[in-house]
């Protein structure tokens, strides 16, 4: 499981806090996959997907406003990456969740963790370089 590490720090307090929250949501997804006490995880999966989508929309809006305020030249391409992530989460196939809940959660987790880590390390770090 991926955890917050100092290498993810951008040095922008609010954005770093928001990124930590994204890691927290990813951890909740991981915990849901490991919870053997719940046989039907459908409602929990839907809750996590909704939380992930809602929080990323909030975070991306904040981050884009910040980039606009500093005159970041690659704002539009950055927004495209954000849009693509939201679109992927929004296009959740809820019928697949019912068929194999743990597999779906692991796919969601893999996608989310890889995307967050790569996006912070490559795309987000670019707007902090002066």
From TrEMBL:
The keyword Metal-binding applies. InterPro entries: Haemerythrin_Fe_BS (IPR016131), Hemerythrin (IPR050669), Hemerythrin-like (IPR012312), Hemerythrin-like_sf (IPR035938), Hemerythrin_metal-bd (IPR012827). GO terms for molecular function: metal ion binding. Residues 11-126 form the Hemerythrin-like domain. CDD domains: Hemerythrin. It comes from the Bacteria. Keywords: Iron, Metal-binding. It holds the Pfam family Hemerythrin. Belongs to the hemerythrin family. This is Hemerythrin-like metal-binding protein. It comes from Ruminiclostridium cellulolyticum (strain ATCC 35319 / DSM 5812 / JCM 6584 / H10).
């Amino acid at each position: 499981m991926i955890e917050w590490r100092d290498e993810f720090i951008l040095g922008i307090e609010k954005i770093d806090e928001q990124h930590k929250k994204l890691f927290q949501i990813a951890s909740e997804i991981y915990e849901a996959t490991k919870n053997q006490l719940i046989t039907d995880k459908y409602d929990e999966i839907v809750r996590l997907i909704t939380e992930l989508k809602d929080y990323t929309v909030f975070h991306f809006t904040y981050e884009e406003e910040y980039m606009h305020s500093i005159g970041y030249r690659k704002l539009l391409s950055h927004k495209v990456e954000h849009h693509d992530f939201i679109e992927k989460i929004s296009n959740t196939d809820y019928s697949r969740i019912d068929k194999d809940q743990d597999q779906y959660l692991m796919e969601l987790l893999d996608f989310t963790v890889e995307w967050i880590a790569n996006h912070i390390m490559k795309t987000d770090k670019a707007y902090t370089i002066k």
